[in-house]
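USER:
Class, as today's exercise, take the chain set out below, and explain how the chain folds.
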Amino acid sequence: MTETTLPRPAGALARAKRFRSPWTVSALLLLAVAILDPGRFSTIGTDAARAFAGTLPFILVAVTLVAYLKASGAETMIGRAFEGREATAIVLAALFGGLAPFCSCEVIPFVAGLIALGAPIAAIMAFWLASPLIDPGSLLITAAALDWPFAIGKATAAVGLGLFGGFVTMAIARMGLLTGVAKPRPRQGCGCGANPATGRPHWAIWTVPERRDVFRTEGWDNLVFLVKWLILAYVLEALLITYMPADWIASVVGGEGTGPIVLSALVGMPAYLNSYVAPALLAGLMEQGMSAGAAMAFMVAGAVSSIPAMAAIWALVKPHVFALYLGLGLTGAVIAGMIYQAVI
């Protein structure tokens, strides 16, 4: 008897792919809230929409810049700029990341652009880890709630975490363990690149129809990609803020010693509290017995490894790079907590 295998219908594959789409997951999460907890649906939806609207200008700037660099062929300059200068790039990325006024999700569009343009993963990691931790506004808020030594310690931790993550990533990459960093994405357009006659970018892209087509295609593809993942990230953020009570966090991370510092970092990773909300909560936790080192570990881990940011990061890089990001964020948070506990 001849055994035959029936192929899976193409329509079923398409439906399964659509079901796993970030659009579908976001819609199902909101639908579940509307059915199970209708009284909070409006609040959760509004919070997610407001957070996304705050990030949208950064998305548009990043998408436009990347599309222009792609269309002009200037992306080749990125690679040349970092040749032989990876260590310098890490230092600059950590310093810039520590000063840039971006939260963990606002960093995503710029990191997506850096990945698309071929920047070294070590410099990207340095920027990615340092950037969410501090900005001028959150520095002042942290100082008001927790005093200036804590605020300065947090700013130092931001740059230190970027340097730590960048140089560790560089060492791992040089061992050949970080090949294939970005997840594959469909590429369209002609891929004009630099001027073949001169090897230089063609800045006046509006004069060449093919380059205008690349600009439109790259811009639209990157915009859709970032929007769908960041909408999911902000829906997750709104759900987390709504349903994770601060009292539970307080009961878990109190106490002295190394144990609470490690536990605070572990709890802080998924417990999204941005740099404007966390200082007030941590001030209350410290009054209830939380150590300063545990508070620092909690704040650092929560900034670099929140669930909304991780959802977007997962969309950009392959699992081994994602795991490295989480490991560096957790390890750096614990180290920052221990150092701060030792020096205060």
